[in-house]
Amino acid sequence: MSVNVKIQQAGLSLAGQYRSRQLYSLEDRLMPRDLDEAYLIQREYQKNISEEQGAIAGYKLAATTKALQEANGVSEPCLGIMLEDNIRRSPCTLNASDFVQLALECEVAVRLGTDLPPTGAPYDRGRVSEAVASLSAAFEVIDIRRTPGMDPKVQFITGVAANVFNAGVVMGDPVSEWRNLDLQAAYGSMTINDEMVGDGHGSDVMGHPLEPLAWLANKLAEQGLGLTAGMVIITGSIVSPKPVNAGDTASIMIEGLGGAEITIV
Q: What is the span of the domain harbouring residue 206?
């Protein structure tokens, strides 16, 4: 089987599993050899889903801590794609029945004001900061579809191919006057049904919430791709995934950036 045929078939397989609400898995013949191939499958999968959910409108970052990277046998974060129809504003209502297992994370969201083209690489935090129009407190919406009992390394690379379980974002109000904020020290927290379920600081995300943006711009440049004005990027967990169910309410708050709210029905 040629690589191109494998990528197409794997992408179609994951899209079919997505539509039929299955847990994600790939046959041995369709398993990505490495992360580069997993990203090719991810893009093919999202190309199929974009027929219903709109064009690529942003990206997510995952595995932004050393502990998570070591646990998965990698030395860098990983990325996922966000589609237009899945970028939502707070306050927001989500239907639990639309997901296999809905979960939420607390993150900093970036909206770009200018492009970060591949020709501009390598990027650092200072350069990507210049392209940021606004920041927001944001929920990452994820749909946990891991197959139980799968070897952890296989589960990880399958998850990357399956878009790292991303199901979009819910963003709070944009903050354009963010440059004087101490984003490293900024405290973030999440409550579910008015009970605190997790907290952390901006420094938990690669030392600073905009470091993942620089990593992403450079990683996409390796693939011949860039980021464009208007895109939304969520930069990694300040609060790790928390499952939610119908009847729950969730709120997040990040110091200097405000908050966001979700009701699950």
A: 55-264
Please tell me the distance from the alpha carbon of residue 110 to that of residue 137, in angstroms, as a whole number: 9
Decide if 137 contacts 181 (C-beta within 8 A): no
Domain count, the chain: 1
* Cross-strand bridge partners of residue 233: 59, 110
In a domain, 17, yes or no: no
* d(C-alpha 198, C-alpha 209), whole Å: 17
pTM score, whole prediction: 0.95
- Gap between the Cα atoms of 56 and 86, Å rounded: 10
For residues 80 and 218, the answer to whether their CB atoms sit within 8 Å is no
Please report whether residue 34 resides in a domain.
no
pLDDT in tens, 139-196: 999 999 999 999 988 999 999 999 999 999 999 999 999 999 999 999 999 999 999 9
Domain with residue 64: its CATH number is 3.90.850.10
